[in-house]
Amino acid sequence: MPAIAPGDWPVLVTGAGGFVGGHIARELSRAGHPVRGLARRPPTIEPDDPPIDWQIGDLLDPATRRAAIRGMRAVIHAAGWVSLGPDDEDCARIVNVEATRALLAEADTAGVERFVFTSTLHTVAAGTPEKPADERTPWNLHAVDSPYARTKREAEAIVLQGIGDRMQCLAICPGMVVGPRDIRPTSTGLLLIMARTPVVVIPGGGIPIVDASVIAQAHRAALSLGEPGRRYAVVGPYLSYTEMARLVSQITGRPRMIHRLPDAAHRPMRYSYAAGGLISRRLRAIGSPALVAGAFLRLHVRGDLADATFGLAHPDPIVTIRSALADAHHSGRAPWLRLRPEPSA
Questions:
Q1: Residue 263 has pLDDT above 90, yes or no
Q2: Catalytic residue among 148, 232, 241, 273
Q3: Is residue 129 reached through a cis peptide bond, with omega within 30 degrees of 0 on the bond before it?
Q4: Does 241 participate in catalysis according to the annotation?
Q5: Cα-flanking dihedrals φ and ψ of residue 134, to 5°?
Q6: Is the pTM of this model over 0.90?
Q7: Quick one: pLDDT at residue 270?
Q8: Burial 248-278 (b: 16+ CB within 10 A, else e)
């Protein structure tokens, strides 16, 4: 696809009121794209935010989808149902699969030329430190299979198959996105748990993190540089959860002691949850066997293809984690948090 002039390419970003979607929408607008942001509720707008045409509504509503797509040349579909927990109401299928299928069809009817789907590393695979997985590695994440993972795999397959010859479709599979303005919070919630206690006991899993600014840049670049029908793992350095806690400790002074659970603890914890979940609806609501398995999963994935295709450069993990924690403190979401001064260059 030839280089695009941003001003000539209006883009719809679904989920623009959320953490990842918000970073994508602001990145596009700052680059000169006319951006329409679809959000379920009015977003928090800061004084230095670039202009975004906000449309408030539900992605599940056909009239809302059609109105949001009207006049757009590209769609970045970042909205989704995200949880490793149970899904008794089938929300994962309704949001991740059926709404994506409908949005894709309506985008094609409206003449959209490029459709970028924000997927997840749970559709890729886990490799080893010596041989990380990539986009072509056969899927092997059976231990963390869940309604979320299954429906994201299905939605990704639907998008990559595309519709007809006119609309070009591709997918971005992010690592654990870390950065400021994580209001919910998502990944920052884990960092804050680590920073709040003097002693943490951590499973031996890990995951590649990726700076929120980098994932936003990847989506913008995908509009012109991504190959249709392909997916791209966008990941920074792999961090074990123990290494993550050590970086949090360097930044905040806590945790002071870090204990790593042996891998042998995985099975009894998984079975304890499964047994307890049959008895306690509350326990079922806060987690799942997939969540337990994910804490022990070493998700080694390489992102060479995306880095080379989109020209991505990843900051040092401590810089990324500090930016997320500093924002949580300065925004008032974690007023108790204390950050150590940054070491001088």
A1: no
A2: 148
A3: no
A4: no
A5: -140, -170
A6: yes
A7: 59
A8: bbebbebbeebeebeeebbeebbeebeeebe
